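User: Run a structure prediction on this.
Assistant: Running it now.
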Amino acid sequence: MTDTTFATDATDSRRLIVLDMAGTTVADGGLVERAFESAAVRLGVEPGTPEHAEKLRYVLDTMGESKISVFRHLFGTEELAQRANSAFEEAYGELVDGGLVVPLPGARAAIEQLRSDGRTVVLTTGFARITQDAILDALGWQDLADLTLCPADAGGRGRPFPDMVLTAFLRTGAVADVRDVVVAGDTAYDMLSGRRAGAGIVAGVLTGAHDRAALTAHGATHVLGSVAELPAALAVRAAPAIPAESS
């Protein structure tokens, strides 16, 4: 059953939190669409054409997936995919500097609270490292999380593969069992990645690309209004049972 209440357990073992960025902790003001349009034009796909509309729809439907994987599907050859990906990353990086990327409400405070509670926080993305770093720099988040990962850090495979979650598990050593990992994201691909990695909690958030039905259908164990609710939800789960008073 998917809900917003985490089961109570006296043993707080959920010490590794793997969070998506765009749509989960960060709002980018539609920059993905704008950057794709710039990349598509460079490859001869003009805005307003049926081909452009079809390709943009696929980009939006696959939010959360590694961008190079998306471009491989859209353009067919590795050469074209790499050209499109480079153009996309360049355009997105330029747009980031325009100040349109902002933290989602409560996201920074949530990450700080999770770390204050003794949890290890890892930020993940489907973007390339250069774009992830541009976002972190724009927000002043370079040291906010314990670790940041992009697909290249996990052998090149992004979501919906479990590789970034498992890389976080291996690199941090924060927990001994993948079932003690918490994954949170706003897309179906985030949910699939978390479930395939064996994470015990896979929480969907309603601040990004996909709605409750899509998140649940792809494996969310819980659905939250936003990532700002995550620290309190985990604190409820970890609260020890109150012993009954003796008569």
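Residues 239-247 have pLDDT under 50 and may be disordered.
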